[in-house]
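re the bet — no i am not wrong, look at it urself. input seq straight from the record:
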Amino acid sequence: MTQDTKPTGFSLSALAIRRHIGTLMLTLAVIAIGVFFISTLQVDLLPSITYPRIGVRVDAPGISPDVAVDEVTKPLEEALSATEGVVQVYSQTREGQVSLDLFFEPGGNIDQALNDATATFNRARSQLPDTIEEPRLFKVDPSQLPIYEFALTSPALKLSDLRIFAEEELARELGVVSGVAAVDVSGGVDEEVRVLVDLDRLQAQGVGLNAVVDELAATNQDVSGGRILGQNSEPLTRAIGRFQTAAEIENLSFQVGGGTPTTSINTSPTTGTATPSTTPPPPSQRVYLRDFARVIDGTQQQRVFVNLNGQPAVKVSIQKQPDANTIAVVTAVKQRVEQLRQAQTIPESMKLLPTLDESIFIQNAISNVTTSGLVGTALAAIAVLLFLGSLRQTFIIVLSIPLATLVAIILMGVFGLSLNVFSLGGLALGVGIVVDNSIVMLEAIAEGAGMTPGRDTQSQLGLNSLIQRSIQSSQEVESALLASTSTNLVAVLPFLLIGGFIALLFNELILTISFAVAASILIAVTVVPMMTSRLLAIPWSSNVGQFWVFRQFSRRFEDAQYGYASFLEWVLGKRWLVIGLIVLVFSTSSLWMVGQIPQEILPRINTGQANLNAQFPPGTPLATSRKVMAATDKLLRQQPETEYVFTTVGGSLFGNSTTENALRSSSTITLKPGTDVEAFAEKMKKAFLKLNLVDIRLRISPGQVRGLILNNSPVRGAEVDVMLQGADSQILEQAGQEVLQALEERATLTSFRPDADSRQPEIQIRPDRERIAALNLNTQSIGATLETAIQGTVATQLQRGNRLVDVRLELDEASIQRPSQLERLPLFVEGNRQVRLGEVARIEAGQAPGQIQRINQRQVFLIAGNLNEGASLGRALAQVNEVIGSLSLPEGVSLLPSAASQSNRQLQGTLPVLGGLAAFLVFVVMAVQYNSLLDPLVIMFTIPLALAGGILGLYVTQTAIGATVIVGSSVAGGYCGQQCHHYD
C-alpha cells in the first residue's frame, strides 16, 4: 500500500490500521483468552476479603459465666490486648464457653496478627484452668462460610437415623465432590446409651455416682498384651473388655461394704465414763448396675430442635475450597444429590430443601449484569443507527462492547480478581465508557472519509485514500481520547486511597472499573479504527438511512440543532447573568438538598429471605419456646409469599457446631421470587403483635448477605448498635433496660433487641468449707457429682460399626425435678460412708448472668437494631441519638461510640475528600494535555454543576447517599471531564 504522507510520532490507531491482519489476529486471541478466563475465573458472592478481626473460642465445660470471667476471660483479655495493632478486645462469656474477638484497623497484616495472637495465647495458657478444651484461633474470612445448606426430612426414618444417614451417607458422598472442602451435619439428635440411675436404690446399695463413672471407663477397654515370640508364629495378644452391646453394661458389678471399722466414743449417763466403741464394717458384697439403674439404648436428650415447615429436620452445610468456583461447586453437589436419588441411595420419601444457596444469588447477579449489558448494547445500537444511519458503523460499535468486556475480564484474571457482586457492577459501569470512546473514534474517521451522519452512508474515496484519511482522522482524536479516558481513571482511583471497611469491599469494584476504562480506550484506538477503515471502504450500502424513520429522525435532529444554536447564542450573549443564576440556584439548592437526602453505607441487598429472631424471658422452659415457635411457624407458612420455613429452637447451628440456649430461637423464611422482603417483614411484625406474647421478643428483618461486614461493631447481625459501658453490672443492666425501653417506644425507624440474655434463675450450692474439709471433700468433687446427677457425664463410648456412641450416666429425671431434691444427693467419704449433699452444703435460689459481655476489659450492655421498611441509616442514627440524648444515664454508665455511626460518618466524610482529590487529578491531567491553566479551569467549572444535578436527582428520588453513590459520583465526575474533552 502506497501512502503519500506518513504521520509523525507513534500512534496505536495508525499501527492498527496499517497492520490490520495483525490487529485482527490479536483480536481473535483476545476473544479466545477472554473465553478461557470466563470459564476459569473464580466466581464468589463477595470479593476476597479478610476482615481485620481475629476470633478466639475457648470451651470451658461446667464453668459458670461469673467464674469463667475471672478464671478464663480476664487473663486472656489482659494477654491478647497486647497484640500489636489491636484497637479493641470484645469478649462474650457464656456458661461453658468464652469468645473473644480482636479488632484491628483495616489494611493491616492479619496473618501476622494471627501469629502474634497465637503466640500470646500459648504464653497465657499456663494461667488458665486445666479443664478448658483445645482453643480455636481464626481469621474472620467470608470464604470459610458455607455456600450451600439444605435441610433433610423424612417421614420414614427416626430423627437419629436421619442424622446417621446424613453423616455416613450424604457427608461421605458429597465430601468427594470436586471443590468441596467440608460437609458439616448439625441438628437432629445423636445416638446415645443412657444409664438412668434410681437415686433411692443407689443409696440403698451404697454406690457413689462417681464410682459408677470410673468403673464404666475402666471396664470398657481393650488392652494389648504384646506379641508372643513363638517358633512358628508370633501372634498378638489382647485383653478384650470393650462392651459389644448396650445390654452388657447392665452386668457391670461393684464391690460395696468391707471398709475399715469405725470407732466412736460412748459416755455412760450414770458414771460419766467415756468408753471407746468399735463398729464392724458391713460385710463385703457385689452389686450390679441393673440393681439401681436402667440402660436405655436410644438417643440423647434433645435440647435443640430443628424443623423444616414444622417437620423435624437435619441440616447439611457445604463449604467450598478457597479457589473453587461457587456456582460450579453447588451445581456439582446438586448433580451428585440427583445421582444418589436415581441410585435409590436417597429414598424417594426423603425431602431435601435448600436453606442457603449462594449460587442462585450469584447467578442472578451475573444474569442482571448480562441483561443490563445486552440492553445497553441494544440501546447503543439503536442510538448509533438513528444518528449515523449505517449498519456497518452500528456493527462496529456493537462489536466493541463485548471485546472491551473480554479485555477487562482478562485483566481481572491476570490480577487475581474474581467475579462477584462488586466486580460485576464494575463491568456494568464500564459499558457506557466503551460506547462513548468507540463512537468518538468512529465518527471522526467517518467524517474524515466524507460520510456525514444521516446523509452519506457510503464513502467516495478509494481504499488507499480511505485508509490514509482514516489514519489522519484517528491520530487527530487519539490523544484527546487518551487524555479524556485518563480523567475517568484518575477520578475513580482516589477511592482506593480511603481506608475502612468500604475500601475492603470496593477495591475490586474500583479496579474492575479501571480495567473497563483501560479496555475501552484500547479497543477504541485499535479495533475500531481498523474495522472502520476497512468496512467503510466497501462500496455496497444498505441505504438504511434512507428509510422514512431515519430521515424523519435526521430532520428532527437538525431542527433541534438549529434550536440549540439559537439558545446557545442567547446564552453567550448573557453569559454572566446565566453563570450567576446557575451558580446561585445550584449551589444554594444543593447545599439545602444534601441535608435532606437519606444516608446509608450500602443499599440493602435482596436475598429473597427474611430472618426471625426470638428471645424469651429468663427461666422460660424449652417446652414453652417450642410452642411459641410452632405458632409462629404456622403463621409464617400460612402467608402466600412463604415458600418454606427453617426453624431452630433452643439454640443455634453453625457448621457442625450446636450451641444450646433455651432462651433463643430463630427462623429463616425463604420467600417466593419477586416478593418484597421489607413489606413482608413489616406485615409479619403486625401479625406477631396479635399473638399477645408477653415479654417474648420476636424480631423479623430482611435477610442479610452472609459474610458482609460494614463496620467494627461487636453487635452481629445489626444495622444500628447502641453500646453502654459501666463498672457496676447491676446498675449497667438497669440502665440498659431503660435505654432499650425508651428506644422501643420512641425510635420508630428501628426495631431493637438486647444482644445478650438477661440474668436467669440459678440454684446455688454453697458448701460448708470446714465440714467438707473434715470429710476430705472439696468443691470440685461436689461439682462433679452435681454434673453427673443433673446433665449427666459421658463415662465412655460404645463402638458401633464405624461410629462411637456416647454412654452417659445420669440420674433418672424423676429423681431431680425440684431444687429441694438436690439435698438427697449422696457423697461418699472415707470408709465408704454416705453423706448427703444437704448435710455439707446450703442450697439457695439466686440469679446468674446469661452471658457477660466486655469491651476493653469493662462490662458492656449491647443493643442491636434493624431498620424498618423505608428507613435510612442516617435518619435512624439521628433518631437514636435524639432518644438517648433525652435520657439521664446513671453515674458510672457511659455511652460508647456507635460503630455503625462511625462508619457512616467516615463514609459521608469521604465524599468531599474524594471529590476534591479526583477534581484535582482531573485538572492535572487536562493541564498537562492542554499545556494551559485556563482551558482546564473552564472544564472543571462543569463538574460541580454535574454533581449538583446528581444531588437533585437523589433528592427527588430519595435515594440514599452511600458507597455506591459515591463511586457513581466519582465516575460521573470523570465522565463529565471526558465529555468536555470531546467537545473541545
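see?? The longest strand covers residues 657-671. told u. also The chain has a mean pLDDT of 82. so pay up
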